[in-house]
Amino acid sequence: MLEVRELSKAFGGLKAVDKASLDVAEGEIVGLIGPNGAGKTTLFAAIAGFHTPDSGRIAFAGHDITGLAPHQVCAAGMVRTFQITQPFARISVRENIMVGAYFRTADRREAMHLAEAVAARVGMTSQLDRQGSDLTVAGRKRLELARALATRPRLLLLDEVMAGLNPTEIAEIVEVIREIRTAGVTILLIEHVMQAVTSLAERVYVLNQGRMIAEGTPAAIAENPEVVEAYLGHGAAKVLRA
Amino acid sequence: MLDPQIILAGVLNGLLAGGIYVLVAVGLTLIYGVLHIINFAHGSLLMLAMYAVFFLWKLSGVDPYVALPIVTAGAFAIGFVLYRGVIGRWSHGKDENILLITLGVSIIADNGALLFFGGDTETIDVPYAGKIIELGAAFLPLPKVISCAAAIAICLGLGLFMARSDTGKAIRAVAKERQGARLVGIDVEHIFAVSYGIGIACLGAAACLLMPTFYVTPQSGYAFVLVAFTTVVLGGMGSFVGAAVGGFLIGITESIGGLLLGEQLGQIGISLIFILILLLRPTGLFGARA
Amino acid sequence: MLEVKGLRAGYGAIEILRGVDLAVGTGEIVALLGSNGAGKSTLNNNVCGLYRPFGGTVRFGGSDITGARSTRIVEAGLVQVPEGRRIFPTLSVRDNLELGSYRRGRSGRQKNLAHVVEIFPRLKERWTQPAGTLSGGEQQMLAIGRGLMGEPKLLILDEPSLGLSPLLVEEMFALIGRLNAGGLSILLVEQNVVQSLAIAHRAYVLEGGVVALSGPARELAEHPGLRKSYLGH
Amino acid sequence: MRNAALAAALLAALVYPLLVPNYLITVGMLMFFTAFIGQSWNVSGGFAGQTSFGHAVFFGVGAYTSTILHVSYGWNPWLAWPVATAMGGLVGAGIAFLSFRAGLRGSYFALITLAFAEVFRIVANSAGFTRGGLGMLIKADSRFENFQFATPIAPYYLALALCLVSLAIAWWLTRSRFGARLVAIRENEDAARALGIDVFAEKVKVLTLSGAMCAAGGTFYAQKYLYIDPSIAFGIDKSVEMLLVTMVGGAGTIFGPLIGSIALTTINELTRNAASVFPALKNVQPLSLVVYGAMLILIVARLPDGFASLLKRRHA
Amino acid sequence: MAKKQKMPVSRRGFMAGSTALAGTMGFPLIGGAQPAGVKVGIIHPVTGFVAFAGSQGRFGATMAVEDINKAGGIKAMGGAKLDPLFGDSQSKVEVGVAEVEKMNEAGVAAYIGCYQSPVGIAASQAAAKYNTPFLIDVGASDLIVSRGLKNVFRIKPGFGVCVDQGIEALGAMNKAAGGVAKTAVIVHESGEFGTGTAKLLAGKLPGIGIAAKELIGHDNPTRNFDNIALRIRSSAPDIVMMSNYQNEYVLLARTLHQQKVNLAGMFSVLGGGFNYKFAKEQPEVSQYMMDTNHWYNPKSEKAQALKKRVEAAGKEFTFEVYLAYTVVGLLADALEHAGSADKEKLTAALASSTFKAELMPYGPTKFVNGQNEGAKAAVLQADKGDIKVIAPAEFAEMKPVFPKPKLG
Asked: Is E307's pLDDT higher than 90?
């Protein structure tokens, strides 16, 4: 469904993403992990049309979407969320989600229904009338998810929806994401909370210093010495194996 | 067509006028560079400083050049307090809020001046106002030569201060890296207020240099607002060198444009330059990419 | 020396730290570990006065500095070398270092400059260059050098190895060890778990805003929970 | 409850001119007219968050377009009105296209609109077809079919109608997809983009709408006062006035500009009248503008959503 | 009644205020049977850009009202007092119109105003709806009296007359000086007033043998006249004519002086900054500058006395003051003739007025389409910090100095 080939993006002299490639098949949950500053968010932004890649190609559902603007990418059926949540602060949760819902309909009533339905799916029904700025972290993360879902995407790009949540909240949102997938939405997620990635993703890509260094099942990845080193530091693989 | 001598004189006039633009723009660009705010009250505060010069002269007979240190220091104090008490405290750090607050300050300043000083045109008559330095076709009025030279000297002094002193370095540090500045123990809010104060102090100096040849009314700050904005975007928002080069460029452009196209269209030139730079090269000549 | 008790903190309505206890003794290196988003930087920022904590106390050198301004905290001798270095890009290397003694250690400026140059001879070569043009490793040296200029009693190093080549990472850890050997207390915030644990005396692992593991570094290195915290297994 | 209050207010507005002297009718007309042009600012500045310092550019384009068509080409002003409105929209689209294509936001956008207004002012001051600085005089001929009115009542109702239309537009913005998108853009441009909003296109659209509304106000003004010149039409005073009433009343709310306009017009009339009753106070008039300025600062500082938020708070 | 009130805090302040109030508004402090006053709306821009001029106008009108009331009010109406309502147009058209509406409610018999032409145009139009006479005290644009409005009266000369008079005087001076001046440059502000005057001047100059070499427009405000000085020097005209508002007028004069532009004369028509203040504060700059402007009749004792009074009050005797004063006199005269404050009668009385504007160098008042055909401007020259009338001859205080001595 999503094909990224040899994508590069540099800022100034710094290569944030360096010839990274990845594939996501329809119906999958795929994880993208990597240590701090690996370039994950930049890669996401490039896929979603927020940055124009310097080189490389992105295809979605068989169409080349390289260099398209975010709204065009969204129209193709792919939508992203943000690592730092960006709620529309001075409007209600319902109205927040409606902004997403309006992507598929111009009708206010329909958008409201859709928004409420989505809110129910992410467990926000009780918070529909709250202001965007009044939400807790967990609430914001859910809102981020709900708004994106309301555009009825085929592929969701989730950027660290679990960062900053406590274990209970994580467990809850993992459940929500599973259900979203069950409902037929493909998911690519950046995540640091490894338990979550492990329990959710079928496959995981590892990005380090802009380069894709590994790909495989979560279990295999956790054993991959290069990944362990990237995460835990030089010499870690040897130490841990011992 | 015009005599090359006249053109040369026009360039010299432009340079002289540019000196003041530089001073006004340096204050604006400093405030922008450090605080990342556009000080919409710049013109009004210049006007207040000009009234200060006028009243010092009228009531106590203080020559504007003698008044320079007094007015500059006073302007610094007012800028510092204004930032601490109003702008910094009430803007909640939002760009648009600051713009609106400085707009509010300018409305208050303009009408306050009208309230207390009246709407009349006030000038001061200093004995050296009519002195001229002849340079070919150019007759350079002594006060303008002095003002330009003083403006340059003040800018150089300010540059030196920024380069050498701890406070100057702290200002430059805060401009680019607030977090880092806090972590070495720089009081960032204090530096903001100091920077705003210095920006306004530049206006104080400019007022002293302007008054021997200019006039003051509650509206006279506006004459310099758009020019200062244009100078700053031309030079690059926040760029010290840019403001200096930009000020002289604007002075000369305006001068030559006025000579060739007529003064009225010369003014449109300022606005057009402003628009074109913002549209085509928002970083200006010397600005760093945002 | 540093004592954090029940610290709760976050941004706006968002609570990130949910009651953290942590201490650094005189002469110690303490490692603070945890994956991204665990709250390490939030802890740093609240300890150093960049943000005001929601609750809990922070004591340094015996006095309460909870919610104090960063100027006072630096003055007291608690200096942070932040993640991402946060050097002043338009200022020269020398000016960066001099500003390190803006609030504290001003009288010892010349002596300390010489000291820093001794530790990082590379900086001398770049003396008048704008700091923004330095390489990543050099910037990290500069950031640490700038921190040292303030004659800290406790130095917080936030991700000093981030973005450095493996060789430089080795060097960096060796250096941290040397600084500590010279008597400086250090709180080391790292994701480079193995090397951090190798030089630290004690360590804490943050997870979801609370301390998940803590203890002597050697013991933690063996702890199965550590690996799980990072890699999920 | 709310509807009843609104209906009562509307009724009051409708019978108001039948009960009060002409002077108060004129003041009422000014309130509604200022609320109308304030609302034009609110559409782009309040709902979409694109602060403009140069809205007078649209006002002036509207005033000049209809006046030129009427005076120089003999058009009936009623016919010239929609053309002037469209011109305002066109200029709005043009300025938006250039500014937003260049990626200008926040203060930069505010300043460039100021500069555009200044350019238009200088052109109007120099060009032949605007009669330059002499200004344009519309021949007095007080007939309704000529868009001129013998009594203050007709312009009052017309201004009221304009104000109602603008309220309807604002109401529509709070209930429509377009409005939701504008608010999203105001609150967070990046998030709006991620949710499939073509931010650039929506911004161009809203400035087109805003420009058209403001230009319609310009024509109304020209026909009411029968004289315009470059400073009246394109001067910064008008721009600031639109911004002030909206900010004070509550940017991004339906009734903000109206509330702001009522408040500011009232303060203004009171201070002016105070001065007429007590000549000893004659120099006090600038004080009203000092008060405006202070209110602006206070509102930015303490009431980011303007006076309207006070009402809302009480409701809640 | 004021005396009965107890003012716990500031009795003196209150008393002072109420006395001033009563004084200015012509209310007697001690009651008695008085005929109803005649309400007059006096609208000036006392705030905003031209607040100074506006306040001057209001001051002049206030004095006139006081004088008339003190002298027994309108005798034909049983000594009815003038009852002024003061309005502030804030330099804004819509505010000026609102003032007209408001004062109409109060039942004013006539309006006086408005200084700025745009405000005057709109305000008098609004007054026309109520058929209320509108007396223009200052307001240069001839658009004001070209609209066929029956209620508008302007006692002072318009553009056209001032220009003609100025040109005539300049022609005569030039002839007397042997035709030294052959070319002129006209510097004007680019607004309504400056542009209009400049066009008229340029059209008429050839008639007196002077070629208009260049028309230089400038914006308000202009920061710097150095280049205009340069251009003037490069085209080397014999005279510079200027037509602009106070700030720019003063700045231009100072700049030409500083830049040592050598001219036979500087001549303006309705020069915005040519007044006592300028002459006094900038004696060197203003020396021998000439202007055609509204001016009082220096030979009139009444005018001289008024001048002393104004100066004693710490104000300047500018044309706004005595024009407003004169216009109030015109109104009182018309009221005497009409014998009533009835608008129709008053309008008719104004239209047929033969009021003798004693303060002014005017002939008998004669309104044609609302313009006083008897109005004349005076040609003035600054001399050692003072201003002297040099033409028309019957009012002249001194002989013109033309060409002026070359600069050293």
From this structure: yes
Residue D14 CB burial class (10 angstroms; 0-12, 13-18, ≥19): exposed
Q: Which residue has the tokens 């060198």?
A: B241
Domain of residue A203: give its range. 2-82+153-241
Name subunits touching C (3+ CB pairs < 8 A): A, B
Q: Which amino acid is at A59?
A: A
- Tokens 């989505």 -> residue: A118
Distance of alpha carbon C181 from alpha carbon C30, whole angstroms: 13
Domain boundaries along the sequence of chain B:
4-280
- Domain C2-77+153-231 is in which class? alpha beta
Question: Is the Cβ pair B263, E217 closer than 8 Å?
Answer: yes
Tell me the mean pLDDT in the region B57-79.
Answer: 96
User: Any contact of D with C, at least 3 CB pairs below 8 A?
Assistant: no
Helix ranges, chain A (H): 40-47, 70-76, 93-101, 108-121, 137-150, 167-182, 194-200, 218-223, 225-232, 236-241
Are A and E touching by the rule of 3+ CB pairs within 8 Å?
A: no
List the domain boundaries for chain D.
23-234
CB D301 within 8 A of CB B101: yes
How far is it, in rounded angstroms, from Cα E52 to Cα B217? 10
pLDDT digits (tens, 9 = 90+) for A139-148: 999 999 999 9
DSSP state of E213: E
Establish if A125 belongs to a structural domain. Answer: no
Q: Are E298 and E309 in contact (CB under 8 A)?
A: no
Sorted by where each begins, the domain ranges of chain C are: 2-77+153-231, 87-152
The values of phi and psi at residue A135, to 5°, are: -85, 155
Please give, rounded to a whole number of angstroms, the shortest distance from the CA of A30 to a CA of chain C: 16
Tell me the chain D residues in contact with residue E248 when contact means C-beta distances shorter than 8 Å: none
pLDDT digits (tens, 9 = 90+) for B75-98: 999 999 999 999 888 877 777 778
Domain of A221, CATH number, reads: 3.40.50.300
- In contact, E158 and E140? CB cutoff 8 Å: yes
Which chain B residues touch C69 with a CB distance below 8 Å? 187
Distances (CA, A) of A200 to A29, A148, A193, E132: 7, 19, 11, 85
Per-residue pLDDT tens for D142-187?
888 889 987 889 999 999 999 999 999 999 999 999 999 999 999 9
CB neighbour list of residue E323: distance below 8 Å, 6 or more residues apart? E57, E60, E137, E138, E155, E156, E294, E360
pTM, two decimals, is: 0.87
Query: What DSSP designation does B287 have?
Result: P
Mutate to test the interface with C, among A40, A158, A194 (most CBs of C within 10 A): A194
- What CATH homologous superfamily does E36-157+299-372 map to? Response regulator (3.40.50.2300)
Under 8 Å CB-to-CB from D19, ≥6 apart: which residues?
Answer: none
Which tokens in the block code for residue A116? 């409420």
Instruction: Measure the CA–CA gap between B218 and B47, rounded to whole angstroms.
Output: 7
Contact C88, B172 (CB under 8 A): yes
8 A C-beta contact, residue E117 and residue E139? yes
The domain spans of chain E are 36-157+299-372, 160-293+378-395
Instruction: Find all residues with CB under 8 Å of A108, minimum gap 6, and list them.
Output: A98, D175, D176, D177
Q: Tell me which CATH code domain B4-280 carries.
A: 1.10.3470
* Peptide bond between residue E403 and the one before it cis (omega within 30 degrees of 0): yes
E160-293+378-395: CATH homologous superfamily? Response regulator (3.40.50.2300)
Q: Which amino acid is at E44?
A: H
As a whole-number percent, the residues of chain C with pLDDT over 70 amount to 97
User: Do the domain assignments include residue A212?
Assistant: yes
Please count the structural domains in chain A. Answer: 1
Question: Can you tell me the ipTM of this complex?
Answer: 0.84
